[in-house]
Amino acid sequence: MDRQREWALSDWERLGRTFATGREDAGLTQVSAAQALGVTRTPIQAIERGRQSNGQPFSKVTQTMRGYAQLIGWTADSPVRILNGQGPEQATQPDSASEADAKSDLPPGIARELRTGKTLDHTVVHLSGEGDDDDVRLVVVLKGGENMSDEEIDRRYEQWRKARRHLQAIPGESDTPQEP
Q1: Would you say residue 62 has pLDDT above 50?
Q2: pLDDT-based confidence at 143, cuts 50/70/90?
Q3: DSSP secondary structure string for all residues of 70-94
Q4: Which residues pair with residue 121 across a beta bridge?
Q5: Which of 8, 115, 118, 4 lies closest to 64 in space, CA to CA?
Q6: Tag placement on the chain: N or C end, fewer CB within 10 Å?
Q7: Do 90 and 73 meet the contact criterion of CB atoms below 8 Å apart?
Q8: Is 134 in contact with 128 (CB distance < 8 Å)?
Q9: Please, which pLDDT band fits residue 24 given cuts at 50, 70 and 90?
Q10: What values do phi and psi take at 109, rounded to 5?
């Protein structure tokens, strides 16, 4: 989408103003938006200024920008649309911070990561042993970038398959040695 495209500082500043208006329309402050995204206020301020915190213009659309777009009810590709002189595209189901918090007890940064990108695979490893009263699990979700090629997905999936074998070898409920 935004591959190798260079935008002018004025494009980034327009994007920033549009984000600020969208945030205000959504009833969010910079602080509440930052909390919902699992970041500090600094990246929100930088995005809305159209410049990185070091004063330089951005060089690419970041995951934080995509998550911010989704937070205020836009599609993840809205930042690119705005940089290209179009308006933001409204998501079919806006995901406001309060809705996301009500649906999940996950930390906001984790919830955002789970909402972005392609879900490629997942696994659940039960860490509780037999006779344990608690149910402790390790949940791993393999996410890919929104613009990954099929070849890149295949390569990353192979890496994941090797790592998953190690995770599944962790002793847990089903593979705890039995007492004689």
Answers
A1: yes
A2: confident
A3: HHTTB-TTHHHHHHTT-PPPBPSS-
A4: 142
A5: 115
A6: C
A7: yes
A8: yes
A9: very high
A10: -65, -40
